[in-house]
């Protein structure tokens, strides 16, 4: 993820160059001011006016350069943040389906909101601030060094000392920041769970328990923020104290040098105006380094959440499914729980398979392997002679269609929910609607296909959702249709008719996991796959 920072490199270079230029101009202005002050002590103040005009001109130039800096920095931040978010989303959609499902959605939401905002504030901003103050430091180093090497050494000695002191003082806050980040992640996950469980909480009167739990988690988070704020305030006060002591020390040394004739009065002003720049990086380091380091740590966390544990080289394209799928010694286990062992099976193009077996027998696991959600730990699935591991997801997902138990509806028109924004002719759309038994439903809707489906299908029934999913799959015109309890929320006649239609499509290979066996359609299946006791037995076909 952190490579994104180099994407808008020209803008970054422009901003940093403007920063360097602005430090040089500021340094030059402070030299002019020194000269003006010293000239004012001379009889007749020769050249006083010219210096004043020069200060005004360079101040104008400084205004322009700082405006360029602000603009370039703003555009760089905006572009980089946008790129970060887009890259994160791109990589989320590059995750293996099963590995994505294993994580809580709240984690991704928390990364895209809390963590990416923290990266913006703590990484981009801190890097800028630190770079700019380093430039100002270098310019002031040259200026004070040119004036008096001894004063410079004293100042550096004192600032390093106070800088180290500030760093040591700020250490506890750094630990607290990472503890708070972990608490935030858990808090977001918890909120997500509570809101998802809204119905179950209401009907089981669990609100009291939820409230106590919620209060406890909120209190922990608030306590941590309060501690951070309190400790930061103490540290800030202590840092101010050391800064004041340092200023006093530097003032003392400068005055001493002025009294002994080694420095002019203007020289004292020059030292005091540049001295703050010398302190900048040392003191900022205590605040900014922990932020930069923890933001870098966040990148590692973000990258880790986006990695796929199973990464296969996908170098083969499956243009179409034309022959067969063969499972050759396929085994799969969830940890210690071996669900399938040494399964050998051939599924032929155009044939229809009904998949049955006891609950927990491994039917969904078999489907997930065939859907390429994950790969077998042993053995190979061959699709038209190609190892499924090596077939690209893009080409394979063109060939298969899925109707799963939970159907997602977009907050969009019924038409878009059916076509999924693909270009589909009206005739094909109407025929898929009819085959999926949706004709009556669509006709009764006041706005027909333009009716908006709200909030994941809140305004339609479970059976209507299933039929929409079936129509989507038919519109896909893929060659393999995988159904997982697709008919369970439909009435008998509707289920019979839709299943019958699907089973009559000659070239379509159907794999249907179902507890409901419809007698009128039973004989249309070419094979009955029984999944139980880690094996798959083909009973017919
Ligand atoms: N993600 C998972 N992590 C760990 N174990 C799992 C996971 N998914 C399924 N299992 C376990 O694997 C076994 C087979 O589950 P699977 O869902 O494949 O069975 P099924 O035949 O589809 O069951 P059902 O008919 O109840 O849907 C079960 O013991 C189940 O608890």
From TrEMBL:
Q: Which organism is it from?
A: Proteiniclasticum sediminis
Q: Any idea which UniProt keywords this protein has? A: ATP-binding, Membrane, Nucleotide-binding, Transmembrane, Transmembrane helix
Give the principal location in a single coarse category. Answer: membrane
Name one molecular function that GO assigns to this entry: ABC-type oligopeptide transporter activity
Gene3D superfamilies linked: ABC transporter type 1, transmembrane domain, P-loop containing nucleotide triphosphate hydrolases
Q: What is the membrane topology listed in the Swiss-Prot or TrEMBL record?
A: Multi-pass membrane protein
**By what name is this protein known?**
ABC transporter ATP-binding protein
What Pfam families does the record tag this protein with? ABC_membrane, ABC_tran
Q: State any GO CC term.
A: plasma membrane
Q: Does the keyword Transcription regulation apply?
A: no
PROSITE patterns in alphabetical order:
ABC_TM1F, ABC_TRANSPORTER_1, ABC_TRANSPORTER_2
**Localization per record:** Cell membrane
Outline the extent of the ABC transmembrane type-1 domain.
Answer: 13-294
Domain named ABC transporter is located at 325-538
Transmembrane regions listed in the UniProt entry: 12-33, 53-72, 127-145, 151-170, 234-259
């Amino acid at each position: 993820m952190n490579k994104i920072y180099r994407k808008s490199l020209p803008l970054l270079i422009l901003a940093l160059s403007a920063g360097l230029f602005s430090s040089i101009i500021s340094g030059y202005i402070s030299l002019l001011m020194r000269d003006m002050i010293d000239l004012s002590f001379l009889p007749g103040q020769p050249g006083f006016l010219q210096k004043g005009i020069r200060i005004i001109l360079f101040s104008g130039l400084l205004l322009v350069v700082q405006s360029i800096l602000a603009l370039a920095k703003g555009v760089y931040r905006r572009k980089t943040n946008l790129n970060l978010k887009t890259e994160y989303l791109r990589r989320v959609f590059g995750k293996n389906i099963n590995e994505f499902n294993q994580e809580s959605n709240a984690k991704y939401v928390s990364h895209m909101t809390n963590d990416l905002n923290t990266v913006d504030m703590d990484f981009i901003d801190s890097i800028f601030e630190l770079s700019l103050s380093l430039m100002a430091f270098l310019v002031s180093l040259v200026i004070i060094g040119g004036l008096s090497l001894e004063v410079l050494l004293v100042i550096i000695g004192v600032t390093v000392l106070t800088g180290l002191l500030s760093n040591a003082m700020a250490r506890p806050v750094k630990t607290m920041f990472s503890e708070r980040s972990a608490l935030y992640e858990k808090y977001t996950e918890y909120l997500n769970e509570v809101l998802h469980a809204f119905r179950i909480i209401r009907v089981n009167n669990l609100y009291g328990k939820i409230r106590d739990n919620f209060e406890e988690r909120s209190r922990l988070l608030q306590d941590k923020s309060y501690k951070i704020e309190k400790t930061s305030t103490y540290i800030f006060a202590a840092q101010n104290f050391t800064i004041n002591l340092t200023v006093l020390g530097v003032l003392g040394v400068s005055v001493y040098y002025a009294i002994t004739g080694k420095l002019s009065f203007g020289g004292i002003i020059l030292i005091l105006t540049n001295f703050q720049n010398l302190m900048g990086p040392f003191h900022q380091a205590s605040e900014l380094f922990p932020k930069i380091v923890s933001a870098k740590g966040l990148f590692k966390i973000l990258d880790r959440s986006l990695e796929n544990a199973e990464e296969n080289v996908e170098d083969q394209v499956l243009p179409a499914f034309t022959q067969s799928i063969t499972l050759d010694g396929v085994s799969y286990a969830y940890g210690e729980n071996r669900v399938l062992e040494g399964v050998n099976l051939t599924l032929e193009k155009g044939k229809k398979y009904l998949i049955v077996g006891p609950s927990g027998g491994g039917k969904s696991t078999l489907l997930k392997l065939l859907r390429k959600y994950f790969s077998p730990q042993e053995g190979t699935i061959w699709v038209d002679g190609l190892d499924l591991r090596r077939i690209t997801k893009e080409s394979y997902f063109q060939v298969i269609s899925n109707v799963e138990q939970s159907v997602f509806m977009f907050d969009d028109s019924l038409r878009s929910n059916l076509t999924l924004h693909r270009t589909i002719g009206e005739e094909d759309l109407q025929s898929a609607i009819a085959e999926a038994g949706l004709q009556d439903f669509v006709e009764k809707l006041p706005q027909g296909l333009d009716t908006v489906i709200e909030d994941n299908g809140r305004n339609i029934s479970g059976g209507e959702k299933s039929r929409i999913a079936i129509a989507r799959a038919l519109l896909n015109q893929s060659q393999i249709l995988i159904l997982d309890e697709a008919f369970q929320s439909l009435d008998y006649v509707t289920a019979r008719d839709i299943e019958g239609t699907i089973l009559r499509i000659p070239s379509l290979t159907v794999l249907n996991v179902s507890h409901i066996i419809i007698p009128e359609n039973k004989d249309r299946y070419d094979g009955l796959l029984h999944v139980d006791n880690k094996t798959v037995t083909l009973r017919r076909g």
